[in-house]
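hey so i finally got around to running the thing on that chain from the lab meeting. sorry it took forever, my laptop kept dying and i had to restart like 3 times. anyway pasting the input first so we r on the same page abt which one it is
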Amino acid sequence: MPAIEKNPSSEDFLKSLGFPVLSVHDTFTHFDFTKPGRRVLLIGPMGSGKTEFAARVWRDAAVAQTKSGKVKELTSTNGVDRRNIFFIRSEIDGARFTDYPEDALAYRSGYIRCGDNIARIRDSFGLEDVIRDNPSVGTYIIDEASFFDERLAYVVRNAAIEKGCMFIFPTLVLNFRKDLFNNTARLMLETATDVIPLTAYCEHSDCMDPAFYTYRYYSVNGQECPALFFDPLIVVGGDRKKESSAEPNYAARCDKHHYLPGKEYTFFTLKPFGEAASRGDAEHLVKEIEALHSNIESSLLYKNFEKRYGDDEFCEKYMASLLPGYIAEKALCYLFCEQNLISEQLLTKLVFDLELDIPYMEKTLRDNRRPVVFNQPYLL
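ok and heres what got predicted. didnt touch it at all, straight out
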């Protein structure tokens, strides 16, 4: 099982200086480059400082590189030196931090420059290429590793075991639904050697509790609209604040202020309709998607919300989740990309029959690794 990094000597050290018995927190130490093969997960919600922590590791490595050859013996295995760091980011994450230099390891309050030791990759095969082309690099920082394919976890494990490389992952392991992000996140947890959890203040204006979750919402006419449970898993966009039905905003939130409407509807109604469609009975799904697109108040989603949230203290917040557009498109993307319940043929028919937003659909499907181009007449 992964272990939380901890320094048990902190309390003894402070006692030796004459401190009384107090609540003693862990020492904030410099990073240890002497242990080969570590797979370190830096986990926490957006805004918790994961990438900034990784930048601190980079700065620690620069200090460690000034040490003697004796230290190099401690930090090296099989020709790789773990003080030599390489930073990797996903190709699909290119919209973030556009104001920073191309070689920047960027975070919300600044950046450090990586020179030649930086790359953008598409998948785990790209990671293998980077490892092969940089035989002396001993530490790889892979930003948002959950964006990559599951194979990445085993590429990392094999390089760690066979070469002694260390890997650091500032990444989300929970998605906006408070579920494990995907299978890649699950496998990374299984193969990790260390977990360093980070938190943030809850970004709700009335709260100072620790935030463990990433909350997704849309802003419509200045109103906060929580993302529905079946919102697309991956939405690629920049870090700027958006006033849009297509691009969400994110905030770190505690459990109380993490609103997630529509989960019951997804499993009680939407997914069963998708399952029926996969068996050839698409009537109920077609009717519901049409209602979501053209008359939301006639949809089963709206009726479910009236029943479930009518007396809830957060009723107004939950009902606001129906204000953003593209709800029909999002429901279809969920059934097609994540649940694999509807065929590309049926998807295409519904897009054209209901005149859904094709650019939105194509971008969302591409971001979620199920690309479809809607430029040909459908055939049934």
